[in-house]
Amino acid sequence: MATKVHVGMETEMNGNGVPETFKNNWKKRLIEFSGKMKRSPGWLWRTIWKVGREDPRRMIHAFKVGLSLTLVSLLYLMEPLFKGIGTNAIWAVMTVVVVLEFTAGATLCKGLNRGLGTVLAGSLAFLIEFIATKSGKVFRAVFIGAAVFLIGTTATYMRFFPYIKKNYDYGVVIFLLTFNLITVSSYRVENVLKIAHDRFYTIVIGCGICLFMSLLVFPIWSGEDLHNSTVGKLEGLAKSIEACVNEYFNDSELKENQEKSSEDPIYKGYKAVLDSKSTDETLALYASWEPRHSRHCYRFPWQQYVKVGAVLRQFGYTVVALHGCLLTEIQTPRSVRALFKDSCIRLAGEVTKALMELANSIRNRRHCSPGILSDHLHEALQDLNTAIKSQPRLFLGSNNNQANNMLALAAAHAARHNKPEKDGHGVSLSSVKTDSSALMEWKTKRASEQAKENERKVLRPQLSKIAITSLEFSEALPFAAFASLLVEIVARLDNVIEEVEELGRIACYKEYNPEEDEIIVKCEKPPVDVAKNQLPTHASD
């Protein structure tokens, strides 16, 4: 019986009846897979090197976790320790895996939450067990079920409280877990008190190992990370503004920036600022659990760093808009931009200097220089104002009717473009009026109208572009937006300086001394409203 082959589906068959295309595809996939396997060791090594090079502390943290797990495993490996603790040693291993975090503040937060939740849950479970044992078996079961329901409902609802959710959410989860394990198992298991004691001791051992590794072995502080990230954000904004203004007046790389703006150093400078809200709040929360960094202050103002970050984000939005001026469709001609190049670059340089001074003041924990808003910044503003006033024709125009004339010219050009098609389709034989000729005339008019409508749709954006470019001051419009955003950056700089100065006052930064011969520390008790905004410190205090 002959094999039916559809048209267009012919394939060459080998001796085994397998299509050649199928076989070739499998060979190609095997070759690609073997190539990937050969390249995988090099790719893996590059990834390991890149991750460690970005932050060498990651490697230190990995070794700390490995050493902690080795120490806690001795509870199983050493016979005397295993006889004293037994199989409950697994709780110590679980505690190390869950509690040990990258920074000391995160480890303290989790470790103390776990310990506090375990103690409270165990105490409440023993109280309920003491009351339940005084009654009969049926009443005991009902009482335990009711207690589990009430405690579970109340504790879960408390997790929605903003303060509890922010500081003790993990502790409430551990409280629920421990309470249910002890209370429910006590109904069937005897001597549950000893099991709870052993689990509590193993959890304490695990938490102790985690705190030892976090606080004493190459500690990584959340507060230092928050401090350094604030400095980095100020420097990133300064570099973004300087690079943005320089590229705007160079005009050689504008098209390249439009194609790969995500790789632009300008974009990288302000991206870290815009994405920092959740990171700043998390670092500030963990830093509030860490030991105090200064004996001069009542409480280190980590929440003030969050406020500085919020002001920097508002400042960064203006930098984003300034960067957008480099990517607009309509650009001011280079000859027009050259008229204002010196004044704009000077103004951007003064703003960059101010931001770098703020970054250095936070890095060195000192107050800002008194001349951070020097006369040079105001002189640069005046120079830009004078340069704009010296070119009134660019912004106001000299002939009010020129735009209308250009629009009329464009409309006339469009009418001339449409006229031949109208004449071509408008031919009719008026001397003969039969039904067939009337039908043909109606179809012809209908086709002509549709053609005009389609042409009108295509012509609309061309007319709008002619209208925009015909405006006499259209050449200066993009630069006017750029200059106004540059002035807005100067205006928002005052808010940044104010928040940084407030941070230095509350954190008791040393006074500015250009010679750095002596350190003068001014410390005053923070105002009541500022103290209320700080997260309370607990066991870390």
TrEMBL record:
<comment type="similarity">
    <text>Belongs to the aromatic acid exporter (TC 2.A.85) family.</text>
</comment>
<dbReference type="Pfam" id="PF11744">
    <property type="entry name" value="ALMT"/>
</dbReference>
<dbReference type="GO" id="GO:0016020">
    <property type="term" value="C:membrane"/>
</dbReference>
<keyword id="KW-0812">Transmembrane</keyword>
<feature type="transmembrane region" description="Helical">
    <location>
        <begin position="200"/>
        <end position="221"/>
    </location>
</feature>
<dbReference type="GO" id="GO:0034220">
    <property type="term" value="P:monoatomic ion transmembrane transport"/>
</dbReference>
<feature type="transmembrane region" description="Helical">
    <location>
        <begin position="59"/>
        <end position="77"/>
    </location>
</feature>
<feature type="transmembrane region" description="Helical">
    <location>
        <begin position="170"/>
        <end position="188"/>
    </location>
</feature>
<protein>
    <recommendedName>
        <fullName>Aluminum-activated malate transporter 12</fullName>
    </recommendedName>
</protein>
<dbReference type="GO" id="GO:0015743">
    <property type="term" value="P:malate transport"/>
</dbReference>
<dbReference type="InterPro" id="IPR020966">
    <property type="entry name" value="ALMT"/>
</dbReference>
<keyword id="KW-0472">Membrane</keyword>
<feature type="transmembrane region" description="Helical">
    <location>
        <begin position="138"/>
        <end position="158"/>
    </location>
</feature>
<feature type="transmembrane region" description="Helical">
    <location>
        <begin position="89"/>
        <end position="108"/>
    </location>
</feature>
<keyword id="KW-0813">Transport</keyword>
<keyword id="KW-0406">Ion transport</keyword>
<keyword id="KW-0407">Ion channel</keyword>
<keyword id="KW-1133">Transmembrane helix</keyword>
